[in-house]
Amino acid sequence: xxxxxxxxxxxxxxxxxxxxxxxxxxxxxxxxxxxxxxxxxxxxxxxxxxxxxxxxxxxxxxxxxxxxxxxxxxxxxxxxxxxxxxxxxxxxxxxxxxxxxxxxxxxxxxxxxxxxxxxxxxxxxxxxx
Length: 129
Prior knowledge:
By secondary structure, the chain is mostly helical.
């Protein structure tokens, strides 16, 4: 995995380590990261994104405790060999909280559903960081 696949936003309200863990979970669930695939080193991620290495280490440790990552001596962190790949229901479960928040914000701002869906379709087609 290339460290630039992670999109870390220092000014976002979500803590940096949660941004990292959430993105790695989604990359594994979506199949972009496969069992045995190595993750970039803590130093590489921290250096590229100009964040504290302890933040990256905390994210990796949390994912290791969850069983999603495995630490291999001399090789760093790799994606664990999951018994079964995540199914569609598990992948939707990762997206649903963001959809709930989007729907709530759209209702609060009284945005029309059709326009919101059009903008979402456009965003899905874009190559966003």
